[in-house]
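Structural prep section.
Before we set up the soaks we want a predicted structure of the protein with zinc ion in place, mainly to decide which crystallisation condition to try first. Input record follows.
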Amino acid sequence: MLREIVVESDISWYYLCKVGQHRDKEIYHLNRERKDMILTAEICFKYETHCHTSPVSKCAKASVEETVHFYKSIGYDGIFVTNHFLDGNINLASVNLPYRDQIDYYFADYEEAAALGEKIGLKVFPGVELSYKGTDFLIYGLDKEWYKANPDILRMTKTEELQYMMEMGAFIIQAHPYREAHYIDHIRLFPRSVHAVEIINSNQAAEANVMAALYARQYGLMITCGSDNHWAGDVFHHLQKKGLDPTIAGMCSETPIQNVQDYINMVKEGQMRPFLQDAEGNVFEIGTDLQCDADADVGIH
Ligand SMILES: [Zn+2]
Ligand SMILES: [Zn+2]
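Run finished without errors. Recording the tokens verbatim:
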């Protein structure tokens, strides 16, 4: 079954466009223009904004080492390790550990990744993925010491927690807002509690990403993209098996990021651009202001 192309909308910003063919499947993505399809050298610094490592994320299949080496091998300049926090799918052996020890455990994968990244020349930054019944948020800009000093966040409602984190300087993104899964009772949006929306999450169906983009657009929220990689180098195979576009999404810039605050500032200033990369290493830029000429697509039945 071929997915229908969405062409009619008063919002010309995001469309599903046919961008290629993979075996018997037609591949669609958001608003990628044909002329943008071969784009490599111009994109300078590439970053993964959303990935998981084992053992801290229970659902992650790849170790820290595999993850760091993978991103280095495909030409990335940095990654944010965004494992599931204490309120989510964390692989904590004992919830009876004192809170501060749980935080130490939580940041252990990031620290291991940062040390390895330093050795092999990949920047590794800390991030956090918070969870509320399967509705997730990416938090950037708060460090281990901050979490240690703030055990009360676990007792707050999600809205209170997000508000508090924002006041403390965090940059907050609603991750894959239209994700559907057996463990998610219903889709929840938090338009007043986030700065940005993850409009392409590689691990989500195209229609969920299109809706995320519309959500961002309608509420005037900033946008980011990430792969939500739980599999390091097996990610392309995994996406393909799920019937998704086998590309990983990230954010790129013309100048390198030195720390988390650089990233936050550059997203706010519009200096980070979304891109996709496939298993062959081709890099595609995704327009965010372009209009795809869907009529030009051929062979759609
Ligand atoms: Zn996960
Ligand atoms: Zn995630």
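Observations: Residues 27 and 245 are 6 Å apart (CA to CA).
Flagged for discussion at group meeting.
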